[in-house]
Design brief:
Helix content is about 85%, strand content about 0%. It is built from 3 helices and no strands. The chain has helices at about 5-30, 35-65, 70-95.
Length: about 100
């Protein structure tokens, strides 16, 4: 696997986590009753938390080792993960 493919994979993971968090917040804030999604989100919340914390650590390690090939993908991934972490903190603070 090349360095560029790893960066695209990391971007895909961060985008999936971002979409999951946005959808979960939409369902919770608007009080939509979707039982299957609520149950699925309870199961997937811990992996989403782990990924939203592990991806920036993985990015910092690659930045230190100078294994970043495309800075624009790197910046986009970092931006998405920071927004995801902020949304998770909002969900924990406001919705609990």
């Amino acid at each position: 696997m090349t360095k560029l493919q790893v960066e695209y994979l990391r971007l895909a993971f961060s985008f999936i986590v971002f979409v999951f968090i946005i959808t979960l917040l939409f369902v919770l804030i608007n009080q939509v009753q979707i039982d299957w999604f609520t149950n699925l989100s309870k199961v997937l919340m811990i992996p989403a938390l782990v990924l939203s914390i592990a991806i920036p650590i993985w990015m910092i390690v690659d930045l230190i080792r100078k294994k970043v090939t495309d800075k624009s993908i790197f910046n986009l991934t970092f931006f998405i993960t920071v927004i995801s972490i902020l949304l998770l903190l909002f969900a924990i603070k406001i919705l609990n």
